[in-house]
Design a protein that fits this description.
The chain is mainly alpha-helical. Helices cover 78% and strands 0% of the residues. The protein contains 16 helices and no strands. The protein has helices spanning 2-28, 34-38, 45-54, 61-73, 88-123, 128-142, 145-159, 181-207, 212-236, 241-277, 281-288, 293-318, 320-330, 336-345, 349-377, 379-386. Helix 5 packs across helix 10 and helix 11 (281-288) runs antiparallel to helix 12 (293-318). The protein is globular, with a radius of gyration of 25 Å.
Length: 387
């Protein structure tokens, strides 16, 4: 396994720098540059030349490419043209947690609901519930996403007035706030990360138990503990709590919209994979041995049907930044997707390249995690790897 991971890391390094090169030249091939768009055409030529040198736009394209690659290796992503003199790294670090928060929760919700419904409708094939869920899933899977997002805003944000229609925070509410949005947001992420760790540890420990009574006891203790810790965290930080709730309130509508669209594909994928798994011989053998139906469904069929779903899940997380362009534009959510779109339009090449570099890193790491998870979930892959 270690040799395999080492080979994959070498391949990933080569592919990443190839990706960086391709992205750099694609962005450089755009006509014009940022100085021709935003500078007064009447300024003296020597001042324009000085600005070009300050932004690193002088010299040949190959020189700029070499400077960018060498700087990237040392961790220097350059300076943002549009937010000069802020570094690209600072701009990305400010935006990326917002995108990760929004899309991670939407993805987790979509996969939880999609996998649960998918395995149940496949197990009870032919019933009314299967037809209803499948038709609903197909409709959501094929819907035009920008139109659906606007429809959700009109329904829940305008007509029913339940959620804010756009934005990350309410500017009026935050006008005299003693904290910045990023400070509150970082504490919100920290509290949710702690609760998620407790939930994950509980699920793993419960799954490893042979006795059902012990597994139920672990779940009965672990899951409420995560809620208690989360509530206690915000009881201690009571001064931040109203502002954290404002951020959560603004994020609910885009999370629900994303989850509804993503859930449909997950449900259909799980249903298809589950139906194929139920035809396997080991399912028939388990039934012949008298294994309870619930165990056959959850421990035998669903576990092996999980492989393509895990692949889709990890790769979906890897591309959340790139997929955020439409969502963050429609909901005016100031994340990485909106940053990438704006940087590309105004030709802020360092920011656009830095954002795409993060997408490349996440995509490559996602492929590596998928390979490792396949070996963990399917013993046949581990045996084939040893041979």
């Amino acid at each position: 396994m270690l040799k395999f991971i080492g080979r994959r890391l070498i391949q990933m390094t080569f592919l990443f720098f190839l990706f960086l090169t391709l992205v750099f030249f694609l962005l450089e091939s755009q006509p014009g540059d940022i100085t021709s768009q935003f500078l007064d055409p009447n300024i003296p030529a020597q001042v324009r030349q000085l600005i070009i040198e300050r932004l690193g736009l002088d010299g040949s394209v190959w020189n700029r490419w070499w400077n960018y690659i060498t700087n990237f290796v040392t961790g220097n992503l350059g300076v943002s043209f549009s937010q000069y003199p802020r570094s690209v790294f600072d701009v990305i670090v400010e935006r990326i947690p917002r995108t990760l928060f929004l899309f991670t929760f939407a993805t987790l919700l979509a996969y939880f609901i999609g996998f649960t419904l998918g395995k149940r409708v496949a197990w009870k094939r032919g019933g009314f519930s299967e037809h209803a869920v499948t038709i609903g899933g197909v409709l959501l899977y094929t819907v035009f996403y920008p139109w659906f997002a606007i429809l959700m805003i009109l329904l829940f944000g305008s007509y029913l007035d339940i959620f804010p229609i756009n934005g990350f925070i309410d500017p009026g509410f935050w006008r005299n706030a003693p904290f910045t949005g990023n400070e509150v947001f970082s504490q919100l992420i920290l509290s949710l990360a702690i609760a998620a760790f407790i939930v994950s540890a509980t699920a793993i420990l419960a799954r490893r138990q042979e006795e059902r009574r012990t597994a139920r006891l672990i779940r009965a203790v672990g899951y409420p503990l995560s809620v208690i810790v989360l509530v206690g965290f915000w009881v201690i930080r009571s001064e931040m709590r109203p502002y954290a709730l404002d951020i959560v309130h603004h994020s609910i509508l885009p999370i629900i919209t994303l989850a509804l669209i993503a859930f449909a594909g997950v449900m259909l994928l799980t249903r298809s994979s589950m139906l194929e798994t139920l035809r396997e011989d080991y399912i028939l053998t388990a039934r012949a041995k008298g294994v309870p139906e619930k165990d056959i469904r959850d421990r035998h069929a669903a576990r092996n049907a999980l492989l393509p779903v895990v692949t889709s899940f990890v790769l979906g997380l890897a591309f959340i930044i790139g997929g955020g362009v439409v969502t963050e534009t429609v909901f005016s959510w100031p994340g990485m997707g909106a940053l990438l779109l704006n940087a590309t339009v105004i030709e802020d090449v360092p920011v656009a390249t830095g954002a795409l570099a993060f997408i490349g890193v996440l995509a490559l790491l996602g492929h590596l995690i998928v390979d490792i998870l396949y070996a963990v979930l399917d013993p046949r892959i581990r045996i084939a790897g040893r041979e």
